[in-house]
């Protein structure tokens, strides 16, 4: 039987997109405490089912699929720019395709405005009105208001008109940053994206026998199954090696591996791959917060997913990308090395290179060096960094990675950092190799 928390989440999921939700309303309708309703609504927000907006409330929005995760809803734009809604609240759940900065004459501006876009403009009432009529939302910068006619039109067309105290440049920067963050998330494949769901998964109950295991093997073709109790909680895993030598009537509960390693749906595929390689696991049960079975992933699924990720274009920049973009790869007598300048963003409060940036440089350059020997993903296991001398802001440094050992599963690399020919830092990194 579903818990109150699960019932509330299901209720929210069944609501029509655009519906308003309140803690008191949910508590009253489902006869639960307001505390329980509040926690469930926060969980729904984390899952992307709802969005909470100041002075508007919580709105049911369309849950984004992997392919359109980079699109923002107008509700999210309100939160990003610290704005408030002047009209068209009913359309906050809609997503924007692009945004247009209205720093041009009205006729020229309207050539760029199309349905589903967002016009960023100041207090130009005619531009507000025409944009709404073109099916576009409006974001007014500088904290300006709009006319009552425009507000009424926004309500009629269900297209939001938002006001923010920020200037146009700041607003555009904030939205661009949010979209870039979404693009990075899009590239990070999660276990929930590849899991074989419960309806398509095969599992055994604790009251099943070895005979049932053999029956499953004959019909499915593999011998690894999670074992669950009457509440669908994962109690164990049974594989071929567990079954060998036992009679058909023995319960699988007696032969299974108890307290198996499991994974949550919101864990990255890379982390799951790391776990499976390290532990030598071919199948992982995927569970919820209460350890109830949601489905399974196999090593084959994980490897396919990692291969798919490698084929995708890089669209969002992580901090590691931004740091390494400041360094160029060069060739010298000692082989390949990396040369670049320490920018202000890379320093600590004393003006020296920060420990986090140095560790990133060691990790990225070491991984690149290892990939010359092994075309695979490198997951750092252990990094030891020695600071020998401080490196000042705007100093040019050279990073020399030297591969010491590469095996099928591990790689070891030594990294030396020089400034003006003087050794300023030294590091040792061990990384796990995950085949693509």
From TrEMBL:
Pfam family, one: DRTGG
Highest taxon listed in the record's lineage: Bacteria
CDD domains: CBS_pair_DRTGG_assoc, PaaI_thioesterase
Record domain CBS: where: 195-255, 256-312
PROSITE patterns: CBS (PS51371)
Keywords, sorted A to Z: CBS domain, DNA-binding, Transcription, Transcription regulation
GO molecular function terms attached to this record: DNA binding; DNA-binding transcription factor activity
Name of the protein in its database record: Predicted transcriptional regulator containing CBS domains
Organism, scientific name: Aneurinibacillus migulanus (Bacillus migulanus)
